[in-house]
Specification:
Length: 582
């Protein structure tokens, strides 16, 4: 039996196309076995290539259309069958005589309204901007339109836009993208330019400025310096690039004084742009710390609106569903135009496969535990059979004498790997110089909700409004000025304590805890190299004495005393040491 098509609804964020792709791959993995196939990666890669090809063909077809053809291009499919049926439906009979009489009646003269002259909302435009559209480029190798004009050379494209006299620069908005340009006034209320560019530009090298509060100059830096643009914005008439004057420039039309002034302004704008870019990169982290609300609001404003995506998945043809998704992503974003699109999609597929395998493992584990849980439930539901006591057991018996076992004396406990001990609420480790206490807390705990008081002989740690987790005296004194605490990943408090006596192992962190066996402490050999020679020799002596005691052999001090007695006896042979006790 064929499975019915499954509906899929999601929101698409153009700034994060891979987010939609991850949801789609998880949905396909859940509802079909497509991702488990060995050839899934190759099929998806070929689907991506085909989607990119379709996207390029659609762009080329759109570029080849004239403005009139674009207007006449139907946006919705025409239902031919419906129109044919409607045309065949019987209509009311036409009264020919009545129409003839009405047509012979004198009629009133028809008043034809004269078309109103087109007005430009942004202010008066000089006559030089009202030029007839054509394919022959202007003197600056571009074209002149009603709202703006553009010129170009090998490296740059310059757009000049007339605006109402007295326009303030803060009312101008200019957004640069690699393939798009948007220029508007009064916060986007009046859009002058908004569309795709002929070629790619370097957004970091593009800038704009307002000249005499009446003309906006926009400078675009081309990525490809070896080609002439046929148009500036998509949808414009194309110029004949063979008629381009390669030596001409818009600045050449100006007189020397004005030209030097414009070139100076352009240079100053480039310098300002570079300085602004440098200072932004240097002070980014500082501004993030001082004004987090500003950056949060800024990013929220810049986030594009979410676009709805609705489609149906046929489990027998998951590639068809994936092709719809790729076409949608290509239409609504520039993701598929990136050189790294195939690699990013391949890594997304790999991640989706990994998630699918992990989900299957969890499902298998749950399925394997189900029979055991069922058996336990059945056993717990059955009543327990209790044997009846025999009559003999009811007879009075002699009281039993129970020997009380003597309580075993609790000795020192074995330390953990960090030479400390692990408790339910916290654990501690140590070396000769420091003691580290780690306390797990609920996930999401913030530093301001933690209380930590470190004194010379006392420690108190806890969460505000709750009983302290640790509150007691240290085994030995610490240096409060050299102690500190921090919270890791908002779920673990770490307290570092610096010992005053750095030649002794602590038996416990806080008095009242079980004491560890310091003879079983294992100091890190690698740490001895960090000590100064005097401290190192002392530590090595202590370690040697501990080993000797464990084996029942004399310590270094006892061996030294014996050697001294032997020397003294050899120096005084006349003395009798037979009855001497050592």
């Amino acid at each position: 039996e064929e499975k019915p098509s499954l509906p899929f609804n999601a929101s698409f964020d153009p700034s994060n196309p891979l987010g939609l792709l991850d949801k789609v791959l998880d949905f396909i993995g859940k509802e079909s076995y497509f991702l488990l196939k060995d050839t899934a990666d190759k099929e998806i890669a070929s689907a991506v290539t085909a989607a990119k090809k379709r996207l390029r063909e659609a762009e080329e077809e759109e570029e080849s259309l004239t403005p009139l053809e674009k207007k006449l291009k139907p946006t919705e499919p025409i239902e031919v069958e419906k129109l044919r049926k409607e045309s065949l439906e019987p209509t009311e009979p036409i009264e020919v005589e009545k129409l003839r009489k009405e047509s012979l009646k004198p009629t009133e003269p028809i008043e034809v309204e004269k078309p109103k002259e087109r007005e430009f909302t942004f202010g008066a435009i000089p006559k030089k901007w009202n030029v007839t559209l054509g394919e022959v480029p202007n003197k600056g190798n571009g074209l002149d339109f009603e709202k703006y004009s553009w010129t170009q050379d090998h490296e740059e494209v310059t757009i000049t836009i007339p605006v109402p006299s007295g326009t303030n620069p803060r009312y101008v908005t200019c957004e640069f993208n690699t393939y798009r340009l948007k220029v508007c006034l009064q916060g986007g209320q009046h859009t002058i330019i908004d569309g795709a560019l002929f070629g790619a530009v370097n957004p970091n090298d593009c800038f704009w400025y307002l000249e005499d509060e009446k003309v906006i100059w926009v400078l675009l830096r081309k990525q490809d310096w070896h080609g002439w643009w046929k148009y500036c914005m998509k949808g414009e008439p194309e110029i004949d690039t063979q008629k381009v004057d390669r030596k001409s420039s818009k600045l050449d039309e100006l007189d020397p004084e004005t030209r030097s002034k414009v070139e100076k302004m352009m240079f100053d704008e480039r310098q300002k742009h570079d300085l602004k870019k440098k200072s932004m990169s240097q002070n980014h982290s500082l501004r993030m710390q001082r004004e987090p609300w500003f950056w949060r609001n800024l990013t929220n404003k810049q986030k594009p609106s979410l676009l709805p995506f609705n489609a149906s998945l046929d489990p027998s043809n998951p590639l068809g569903f994936l092709e719809k998704v790729l076409d949608f992503i290509g239409k609504e974003s520039d993701f598929l135009l990136k050189d790294t699109a195939e690699k990013e999609i391949a890594s997304a597929v790999t991640a989706a496969k990994k998630r699918l395998r992990e989900a299957e493992k969890k499902k298998e584990q749950k399925d394997s535990l189900k029979p055991l849980e069922k058996k336990l439930k059945e056993e717990s539901s059955q009543p327990m059979e209790v044997e009846k006591p025999k009559k003999e057991s009811l007879k009075p018996t002699e009281p039993m004498e129970v020997e009380e076992k003597p309580k075993e004396e609790e000795g020192p406990i074995v330390p953990n790997k960090g030479n400390g001990f692990d408790f339910e609420t916290y654990s501690w480790t140590q070396n000769l110089q420091e003691v580290t206490v780690t306390i797990p807390v609920p996930s999401g705990t913030k530093p301001r909700s933690v209380t930590c008081e470190i004194k010379k002989n006392r420690l108190k740690v806890g969460i505000k409004g709750q009983e302290p987790i640790i509150d007691g005296e240290f085994f030995n004194a610490v240096k409060p000025d050299d102690c500190f605490w921090n919270i890791e990943d908002q779920k673990l408090i770490s307290v570092l304590l610096t010992k005053q006596d750095q030649m002794e192992w602590w038996k416990c962190c806080v008095k009242g805890e079980p004491e560890i066996d310091t003879q079983k402490v294992e100091p890190e050999s690698s740490k001895l190299s960090d000590l100064d020679p005097e401290t190192r020799s002392t530590v090595e002596k202590m370690m040697f004495d501990q080993r000797q005691k464990q084996m029942g052999l004399p310590t270094s001090d006892e061996m030294e005393k014996k050697d001294m007695m032997k020397k003294f006896m050899s120096q005084h042979p006349e003395m009798d040491f037979s009855n001497a006790k050592f």
